[in-house]
């Protein structure tokens, strides 16, 4: 979709649908920006809107035809009470509008941006969230259906309308949002792709294509190359599948001559393109959801795409260990001992705890470049879903500062993370009997923390590191105002925003 910001008046601007985001005051809609709209040359909209029962409640919509405005159709969207309006309220409102505009087949949508004096954010943030919400709400699904509607999808262009003094701020917000939304949509597209299509090799191909389009360098390590590096984790998990595993590595360099001094990040994403559980086979019910087990890789690939588009002043190394976890004659089995790239030995007690095995090698590989920060994202444990549900990802690590920044960033992007404790007792639980480590804790308790404790063994104590367990929020079973059913792209905007904060 094309997004522009214009300073033309609402009634005079040509378009198909003129949108008014409306606050609620007490139990009534604040219609002051609308009632004077036609300057007395059209109908008085006040009584019409009231008779439609529209009170400005959050998420409510009312389309009204108005002869006195050039666009003809107007659409009111409720924002709720100004004191309750946050950034996500704006994204959601834009999402509701985008879907209604599509229903009405409106190609050009105009938005009369309300005054932001009464809310806790500025015009730039309004524009950013509106554009993000509108783009994200219409992210495509059902791409493989053969009866897709033909022709151009609506809306095709949006204009945010505001007075001349507000335009520059809003343009900045809208531009940034386009990059953020694109990264999120890319991540969703990867998560939604079926696992027979998105094999580890296909994931590497898509990462390569994205890197090329964004001007990044991409290297893909094949099996013999990883054998040389003794990556027993990735090779072990991949050996039960006919689909070869891959290790994807992408570099983004901060632009400008001071780029070398910019903070450096390693982003490691779990790229299990399908998780059957392996020999420790998962039950059949809902196993289809395990196509989303590469959600961490989608998040880090989306994040680097955003960083590249915004030319963020940070250096990034993305590492994606990609494999398919299958049970076959060659598959790893409980009691096997693997030797990882860092030389540590690991007893596999459950082949379904495969994410930590591939991440261990990924984290080691990322650490070779001595980054300032390491962030890994992974759909790692069902235990994290039990603990936090789907609204929050779990975050653990060795740096309170990095965790705090992730929490701040997640508050802004509405990809919320919540800290879980990572203390030595959990690290003791993953010490092995026959080997250095085992890939399980003692029983089912604290499964998210014992998984993180396992990862900690592959991270240098002195490097700031955070692990984000996105098993809950990586996908949604029901459509949301800014996300259709399926992959949410969770983590892409969160990690990009975290790097933006730390790079500024
Ligand atoms: N991919 C799963 C985790 C998962 C669960 C992701 C639910 C998304 C939704 C992971 O590989 C796994 O199976 N973990 C096991 C670990 C256990 C065997 C220690 C789990 O959480 O049950
Ligand atoms: Zn598993
Ligand atoms: Zn998994």
Would you write up a description of this structure?
It is a single chain. By secondary structure, the chain is an alpha/beta fold. 35% of the residues lie in helices and 21% in strands. It contains 15 helices and 21 strands. It has helices at 32-35, 45-51, 87-103, 123-137, 164-192, 200-214, 223-228, 232-238, 295-310, 355-367, 382-388, 400-413, 424-429, 447-456, 492-503; strands at residues 2-6, 17-25, 28-29, 61-65, 73-81, 108-112, 157-161, 217-221, 246-252, 264-269, 271-275, 315-325, 337-339, 345-347, 373-378, 393-397, 417-419, 437-438, 464-469, 475-476, 486-487. Strands 8, 9, 10, 11, 12, 15, 16, 17 and 19 form a nine-stranded mixed beta sheet that branches. Strands 1, 2, 3, 4, 5, 6 and 7 form a seven-stranded mixed beta sheet that branches. A hairpin with a 5-residue loop joins strand 13 (337-339) and strand 14 (345-347). Helix 5 (164-192) packs antiparallel against helix 9 (295-310) and helix 12 crosses helix 15. The two termini are 29 Å apart. The structure holds ligand BES and zinc ion (ZN) (2 copies). The site of one zinc ion (ZN) has 5 residues, from strand 11.
């Amino acid at each position: 979709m094309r997004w522009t910001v214009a300073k033309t008046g609402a009634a005079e601007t040509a378009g198909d649908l003129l949108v008014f985001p409306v606050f609620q005051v007490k139990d009534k809609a604040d219609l002051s920006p609308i009632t004077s709209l036609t300057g007395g040359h059209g109908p008085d909209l006040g009584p019409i809107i009231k008779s439609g029962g529209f009170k400005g409640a959050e998420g409510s919509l009312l389309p009204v035809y108005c002869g006195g405005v050039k666009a003809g159709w107007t659409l009111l969207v409720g924002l709720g009470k100004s004191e309750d309006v946050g950034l996500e309220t704006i994204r959601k409102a834009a999402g509701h509008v985008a879907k209604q505009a599509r229903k009405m087949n409106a190609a050009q949508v105009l938005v009369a941006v309300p005054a932001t004096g009464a809310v806790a954010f500025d015009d730039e943030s309004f524009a950013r969230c509106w554009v993000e919400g509108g783009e994200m709400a219409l992210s495509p699904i059902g791409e493989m259906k053969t009866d897709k509607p033909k022709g151009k999808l609506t809306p095709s262009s949006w204009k945010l309308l505001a007075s001349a003094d507000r335009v520059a701020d809003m343009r900045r917000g809208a531009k940034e949002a386009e990059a953020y939304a694109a990264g999120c949509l890319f991540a969703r597209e990867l998560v939604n792709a079926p696992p027979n299509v998105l094999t580890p090799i296909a994931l590497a191909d898509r990462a390569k294509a994205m890197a090329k389009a964004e001007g990044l360098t991409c290297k893909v390590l094949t099996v013999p190359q990883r054998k040389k590096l003794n990556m027993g984790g990735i090779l072990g998990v991949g050996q039960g599948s006919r689909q070869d595993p891959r290790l994807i590595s992408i570099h983004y360099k901060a632009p400008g001559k001071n780029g070398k001094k910019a903070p450096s990040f390693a982003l490691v994403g779990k790229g299990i393109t399908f998780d059957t559980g392996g020999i420790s086979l998962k039950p059949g019910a809902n196993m289809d959801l395990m196509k989303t087990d590469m959600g961490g890789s989608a998040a880090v690939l989306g994040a680097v795409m955003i960083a590249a588009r915004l030319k963020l002043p940070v250096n990034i190394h993305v590492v994606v260990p990609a494999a398919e976890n299958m049970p076959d004659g060659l598959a790893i089995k409980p009691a096997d001992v693997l030797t990882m790239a860092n030389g540590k030995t690991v007893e596999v007690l459950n082949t379904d705890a495969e994410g930590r095995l591939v991440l261990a090698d990924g984290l080691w590989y990322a650490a070779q470049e001595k980054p300032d920060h390491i962030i890994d994202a992974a759909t790692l444990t069902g235990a994290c879903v039990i603990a936090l549900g789907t609204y929050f990802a779990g975050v653990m690590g060795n740096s309170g500062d990095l965790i705090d920044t992730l929490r701040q960033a997640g508050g802004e992007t509405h990809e919320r993370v919540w800290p879980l404790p990572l203390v030595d007792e959990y690290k003791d639980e993953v010490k092995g009997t026959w080997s250095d480590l085992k890939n399980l804790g003692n029983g089912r308790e604290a499964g998210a923390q014992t998984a993180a404790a396992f990862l900690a063994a592959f991270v240098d104590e002195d490097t700031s590191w955070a692990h984000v367990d996105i098993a809950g929020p990586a996908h949604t079973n029901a459509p949301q105002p800014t996300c259709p059913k399926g992959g949410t792209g969770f983590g892409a905007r969160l990690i990009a925003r975290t790097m933006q904060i730390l790079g500024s």
